[in-house]
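Lab meeting, item 3. Inverse folding demo.
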């Protein structure tokens, strides 16, 4: 017994594929995605480490010295009280940066230490922009779904 295989014209296959993918996208869009803050922070930290390591062209030896000092630096920055007046917060952060600059210079040299502070700010700016864009896109999707 020979089974005949039906061959559909390409446009039919494309239509079926399009409908399948469209319905999959709608189903996913309707499901609320719960984002685990710990996983999100871990992912951001991994991206940050990769970005800084690449931008500063850290050698393995430099990375072994740099990242422990950076962890202390980051802990102190995060410990700045958010309820303080804005200028007081900025001054505290500046004081911490000045204190750690000498440590970073010993590991990276003067130029790359300065690059670190620039690249750190650049990463944070890009992150904020990306999060803002994601939020706007999510709002647009919700508006479109509410219209339908």
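The presenter then showed the designed sequence:
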């Amino acid at each position: 017994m020979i089974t005949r295989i039906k061959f559909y014209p390409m446009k039919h296959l494309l239509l079926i594929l399009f409908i399948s993918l469209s319905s999959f996208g709608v189903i996913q869009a309707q499901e609320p995605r719960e984002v685990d803050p710990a996983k999100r922070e871990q992912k951001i930290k991994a991206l940050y480490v990769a970005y800084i390591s690449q931008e500063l062209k850290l050698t393995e030896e430099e990375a072994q010295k740099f990242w422990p000092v950076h962890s202390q630096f980051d802990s102190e920055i995060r410990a700045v009280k958010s309820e303080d007046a804005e200028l007081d917060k900025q001054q505290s952060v500046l004081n911490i940066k000045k204190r750690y600059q000498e440590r970073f210079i010993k590991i990276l040299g003067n130029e790359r230490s300065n690059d670190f502070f620039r690249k750190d700010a650049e990463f944070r700016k890009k992150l904020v922009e990306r999060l803002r864009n994601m939020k706007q896109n999510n709002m647009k999707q919700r508006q479109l779904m509410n219209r339908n």
